[in-house]
Fold these 2 entries.
Entry 1:
Amino acid sequence: MQTLVALTRRVSPRIAECELTFINRQAIDYPRAVQQHSQYQQLLRNLGAKVIELPSDDQCPDCCFLEDTALVLDEVAVITRPGSEARRREVDGVAPTIMKYRNVVRIDSPGMLEAGDVLRMGRNLLVGVSTRTNQQGIEMLRTALKAYGYEVVAIPMKGALHLKSVCTALDDHTVLADPRHFDAGELSEYKLIEVPAAESMAANVLRINSAVCIHAGFHQTVDLLRAKGFDIRTLDISEFLKAEAGLTCMSIPFYASST
Ligand code: GLY
C-alpha cells in the first residue's frame, strides 16, 4: 500500500529576511504567512496526503521552502547542495527524514543544485541552469541517476530564480510556463500553455495527482486553466510570493510504502 507523503517545514519567524534575487523586498506579515502555510498543509491533506511538518531552523529564514533541499524520486533521493550559501544548512534539517524513506545520493562541492530547478516529466528531468544550480551540479545529478534510467536535460535560465518558478507540470504531457525566461524549444515534446504576461509567477503550480493547486490571486491563469478543464484548487499564498517562492517550494511530496 503506497501512501502519499508531503514533507513540509515550519515557517521561520525570520522569513522577512529571506533571500531575494529578482524581486524587491516587501514587508512579509509573519502571522499571515503562518496561517497561509497551515491552509496549504490542509489543502495537501484534502488531496490525500499525509503531511509531516519538520521543525523550523530559525537561523534559516527560507527553511519552509524545503523543496530545494532534496529531489525525491521513486527509486532514490538526491540531497542537494543549494547554490545559496545562506540556505546550505537547511539540508541538515531535512536529509535525516528523507533517509527514512529512500537511499540517498548527494551533490558535492563544487556542484550546486536546488531542486526548485528540477522539473520531472516522467523519466526526463529538466534542470534549470540558474544562479542556484550550476553545470557541475547537473553533471553530478546526471551521473547519479543514470543507472535509474533518468535523462537529465539542462535548460539555461534568465531572469528567474528557479526553473519551476516559471515552468511546472499540469499533467504528464503539458507544462504551464512563462517562456520569456528560457528557450521553450527545450520543451518541444510537451504541450506548452503560456501564462498571461502579467502573471509570470502563476507558472508555479503544484500538481497532486490530477489536481492543480494555484495562488488564488492569479485570476487570469485560474480562468484560463479552468476553461481548459483542469481540476483547479486555489489558495492564498501572498506572503510567500513576496519571498520569491511558490506552491511547489513548500513541500516535498512522494509515495512511500510505509509511514
Ligand atoms: N526566497 C527564496 C530563495 O531565494 O531561495
Entry 2:
Amino acid sequence: MKKDFLTLLDLTPEELQALLKRAAEFKSGKDSSACPLIGKSIGLLFNKTSTRTRISFQTGIYQLGAQAIYINTNDLQLGRGETIEDTAKVLSRYLHGIVIRTYEHDTIVTLALNSTIPIINGLTDLHHPCQALADILTIQEKKGRLKDVRMAYIGDGNNVVNSLIEAAVLTEIDLVLACPHGYEPDKAIYEKARSKGAKVKVLANPDEAAKDADVLYTDVWISMGQEKEIERKKKKFEGYQINSRLLSLAKPDAIVMHCLPAHRGEEITDEVIDSPQSVVIDQAENRLHTQKALLEMLVR
Ligand code: CP
Ligand code: NVA
C-alpha cells in the first residue's frame, strides 16, 4: 500500500530514525552512485513560491535517478476548475509520486485520498514536515543528540512550528514556544502532541523561553498567503525578535535556526543570523539529504 507524508506523524519514531540514518549516509557521499528511483517520474505541484523546497527536491530526484516534473498548479487544468479528485486519479497513472505546496491542508488530504501514489507535503498553511526532517537532522548533527535538547521557538505559531511540535512527539526534544497572544500554534496539533507525551509547552515570555536553550528557532512573522495582516501583526510581534540580547540568555553554545527565507531586521537580526552560532545554511542543505531519504522510503 502506498504511504503519504502529509504531516510528520505519518512516520513512526522508528521510521524517522531510519530516515535520519539514511540521510546521513547520502550526505556522507558514501552512496552517491545509488539510483533507487531510476526511470521514475515525480511531479512537483506548487502554487506558492519556493527556493529551497523546489530546488532541493528537483536536485535530489535527479540524484536518485528519477526525473522531476515541476509545474505551477495554475498551469494545470486544476486552475480552470478541474477537480482535485480527477487530477489525482489521472496523475496517478503517469507519476510515481507527487510533492505538493499549496494553501489549504485539506487540498493535499483530498489529493492523497484520491491518488494511488505517495503524496508528499512540500508545505501547506498548516504543516511543513519536510522542513522538520531537515531541522531534526541538523540538531542531531550539531548537538550530537535529540534527547532533552531544549529548543525554543520564538515567533509566529505557523506551519513550521506545527511540524516542530510533531517532531517533539517523535523525538525526545524538549520544545518551548513563545508566541504572541492570538498567534499560538494550531490548538489541535498542540493538544494531540501533549496527549502523546511530547515535551512541549507554551510560555508567554520570549526571555523565559530563550533562557538556557540549546537551540533558538524562529520563522517569518508573515507567512505566504497572510500578506493582508502585515502592519497589525508586526506590532504584536515586537519583543519576539531573535537578537543578540535574546541569544545571550541561551546556553553559550546554543545554535540558531531558521527555515529561511528570513526577513532580516524583523524576526531575526543580521548580527544573529550571520553569527557563528547560526546554522541556517547547514539546515537548508539538510533539506536535500533528508528528502532523498524520504523519497527512497516512499516511492516504489
Ligand atoms: N524553507 C523553505 O521551505 O524554503 P522555500 O520556501 O524556499 O522552499
Ligand atoms: N512559514 C513560512 C515558511 C516558508 C518556508 C511560510 O509559510 O511562508
